[in-house]
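Model: Ready when you are.
Researcher: Fold this.
Model:
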Amino acid sequence: MTEVILSIDQGTTNTKALLVNTGGRIVSRGSCPVNNRYPQPGWVEQDPADIWESVKKSAGECINAAGNIKILAIAISNQRESALVWDRKTGKPAGPVVVWQCRRSAPFCNKLHESGIEEKAREKSGLVIDPMFSAGKIRWLLDQIPDGSKRAENGELCAGTIDSWLLWNLTGGAVHACDISNASRTQLMNLEHARWDDDLTEWYGIPKAMLPEIVKSSHTAGFTKNVEGLPDELPVAAMIGDSHAALFGQGGFRQGSVKATYGTGSSIMSPTGNRVTYNRSLSSTVAWGLKSEITYALEGNITSTGATVQWVSDLLRLKSAEKVAELASEAEDNGGVYIVPAFTGLGAPHWNDRARGLITGLTRGAEAKHIARAAIESIAFQVQDVFKLMNATDESKLLADGGGSKNNSLMQFQADLLQCPVLRNNDTDISALGASYLAGLEIGIWKNLKDIEDLPRSYDRFDPKMDREDRESIISAWAEAVERALFESKTERL
């Protein structure tokens, strides 16, 4: 009988489940797609019940594929910032999951900008006021519920991020908690004190009575109860946001490590140790919380990377992102074409929700292959814009993971732009692995971070090849394209 951890990775477009053995290796996998709805331009939402069903289906698939196993614990990594509200008594959702990409809370966030509290909010939470973060989404949801604020104050409603929704369902409604990394992405938690902040909750009008308990990332938050396909009393021993889980899974524990996750959007994260470090263009956040300490990080969030490739796939009727990559490979260069994918504004380092996407550099000689290549390259350009703000050293390298990192051409172009090696982790399920490592620490499979560092990992290395003049030329052209997108936002205000 093989002893394993069941690791659930609940993402924006699918839910994955892994069984990870005590040697840190994957025994089996399961997956289930998750549907996204787009009710208005800039709005993205999901059905909370669909998310929970996808978890049960993917977990069942990997358990059935594994054979003779004993599950020791459950770990959760999850899409961050997405938020929902549900009835505490019935457990029924009181609205959709408002997905992290969704901009529906922009009007409320704009009012907060105008109120003059932005600097204070950033000092407390580490985050700029932006519709991406959970607080505005929860406020919007409360506004749609009859007597929402009153019911929340009376303790009748629960609000949470996806980890808290999964924990609630896994424990049969017994536990309402979220991990510290997810809490740090809500803009409701005081980053220094790791608790819900009186001022932040007041500014957003969110009663503390509806918020979950904040727990460490490696921590037994509750035990399973009445979950189809799972025995009762399994410990839920880890919860963590997916980007944080990827950094942990990469073994990026040392200050100066930089990780980029290439997904629907992208997160570039670098740990800063046990103290909060501020940067005006980046987010300050909790990387993870262990029993003895909290590790902080700097992060740059990019809204559209893989989503850009999917958009071009739809635009050119290519059927898949893989087809976009194939078409892009037919072009020797981008032909002077640049795509700035500000479909719902620009995230780090610009934080401009009024910016709008554009394609620039089009001529009669531009072809579909140049547009495809520009879409791929836009990912690397955006990562480069954030990476240069991290505390990089002469020995810097980028740890890469996520679905987009499978594209060799993208990884080589990324190394060329950064002028440092890119190390691509060959396991595309690194977030789920990171969560399983945290659960293993909690239940005693691994004793310390050194044990996690020593676990087997396989990388592909991409070293820079582009000459300096070519690199500076294309970065300059990209910067000009971004300025045009930002200029459009300034013109909109006039």
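Researcher: Now this one.
Model:
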Amino acid sequence: MAKETTPNVGATYNALTYGSKIVGKIIADSDFRIDGEVEGDIICNGKLVIGQNGVLKGTISCINAEIVGTVLGDIVVADSLSLKSSAKLSGEVKTKVLIVEPNAVFNGTCSMRHDVEVKSE
């Protein structure tokens, strides 16, 4: 009798943990969480979360983003960008929706419109 396999139907996401560092380009087909350090560009076809200890020096292109840590670079978000109270963001932002909590630091420019187009590869 053949053994049945059950596909994983849970949430799929990728993570870079605290203490890890990547230099280069990241392309993710699903959600991605960064608690380490990235120097380079990220293209994410899902939600990108920069955690409390996360640092990104580069560009971001994604569907949704939540910044809790630090981003030094430009961001293009197709839907919603949320800057939590501990977030530090320096760069140019293009998004449909921008949510900024009190005490978040945002130094740069923001362009908001309904037809933001993200990169894909």
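Researcher: Key takeaway?
Model: The mean pLDDT is 89.
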